[in-house]
Design a protein that fits this description.
It is a single chain. Helix 1 packs across helix 9 and helix 6 packs parallel to helix 7. It is elongated, with a radius of gyration of 20 Å. Helices cover 36% and strands 24% of the residues. It has two domains: 149 residues, NAD(P)-binding Rossmann-like Domain (Rossmann fold, 3-Layer(aba) Sandwich); 108 residues, 2-Layer Sandwich (Dihydrodipicolinate Reductase, domain 2), CATH 3.30.360.10. The longest helix has 17 residues. By secondary structure, it is α/β, with parallel strands linked by helices. The chain binds nicotinamide-adenine-dinucleotide. The site of nicotinamide-adenine-dinucleotide has 22 residues, from helix 1.
Length: 269
């Protein structure tokens, strides 16, 4: 049995992660952590998510419970992720990170810390999105040098705080790597006013924020006379939660290192 601690258990993803953990064979809900001062502290997690009493009380500190669990799942904020990874490293515990919006320095630190503990870090934990990354790389290899313009379009709910989404960036990176481009210099993240025609090699990003959209991503390869679109639409957050719990069971058995869902799902070339 793999004992899982869920950080940010009161969040949109946190509640789904608790539900997915309770429903998964081989996984045990070991702890659920919320913000200090939360009115939920002490409540039974199962009752909180409408799954019936499960005997695990909500707590406010990962520090207090870390020695009693095997893996942490973190879908919170970059600042809390940094603290959680440091704590996991100090206690030799594996961690699954779904939090998006980490900056370059934070990702670099994570790479260093992952030399000591197993870490799965993925901006999107869904099986479909991770398979799409392979399809995108195949399409980019065939089309980028044949004059097809590449654009990434994403849409999310009105509460999302970072843009473009971590998944859109992942897709952009998969395409860029496959056709030898660099997203830092060839990614175009806004167009406004008289910005001129697009260049051949740029990879453009467009962002929609509206209502309750769970997450939609399209990568368009367009040329004179035709257009290919690879689209993924998430209709429930449970797809991310189930992927994260699958990653937790996998990473609990892994050697120290920085992994992503391609490793967890066995999709790496
Ligand atoms: P949310 O705002 O609903 O949840 C974040 C939770 O973190 C909140 O409950 C907040 O109270 C909690 N939190 C913040 N600081 C804390 C602290 N010090 N101690 C304990 N809890 C603390 O957001 P969400 O929609 O659940 O998304 C969370 C993150 O997951 C975002 O970065 C989002 O982009 C990402 N996400 C990733 C995937 C994926 O597949 N990788 C899927 C969906 C969302």
């Amino acid at each position: 049995m793999t004992r899982i601690a869920i950080l940010g258990a009161a969040g949109r993803m946190g509640r789904m992660l608790a539900q997915a953990t309770l429903q998964t064979d081989g996984a045990e809900l070991g702890a659920a952590i919320v913000r200090p001062g939360s009115s939920l502290i002490g409540a039974d997690v199962g009752e909180l998510i409408g799954a019936g009493k499960c005997g695990v009380a909500v707590t406010d500190s990962l520090d207090k419970v870390i020695d009693a669990i095997d893996v942490v799942i973190d879908f919170t904020t970059p600042a809390l992720t940094e603290q959680a990874v440091a704590l996991c490293k100090a206690h030799g515990k594996a961690i699954v990170i779904g939090t998006t919006g980490l900056d370059e320095a934070q990702e670099k630190t994570l790479g260093e810390q992952a030399k000591a503990v197993p870490v799965v870090y993925a901006a999107n934990m869904s099986t479909g999105v991770n398979l799409s990354l392979n399809l995108l790389a195949t399409a980019a290899r065939a089309l980028a040098d044949a004059g097809y313009d590449i654009e990434v379009i994403e849409a999310h709910h009105r509460h999302k705080v970072d843009a473009p989404s971590g998944t859109a960036l992942m897709m952009g990176r998969a395409v860029a790597e496959a056709c030898g481009r660099d997203l830092r210099t060839q990614g175009v993240f806004s167009r406004e006013g008289r910005c001129g025609p697009r260049t051949d090699d740029e990879i453009g990003f467009s962002v929609v924020r509206a209502g309750d959209i769970v997450g939609e991503h399209t990568v368009m390869f367009a040329t004179e006379g035709e257009r290919i679109e690879i689209t993924h639409k998430a209709s429930s957050r449970m797809t991310f939660a189930n992927g994260a719990v699958r990653a937790a069971l996998w990473v609990a058995q892994a050697q120290p290192g920085l992994y992503d869902m391609q490793d967890v799902l066995g999709l790496r070339d």
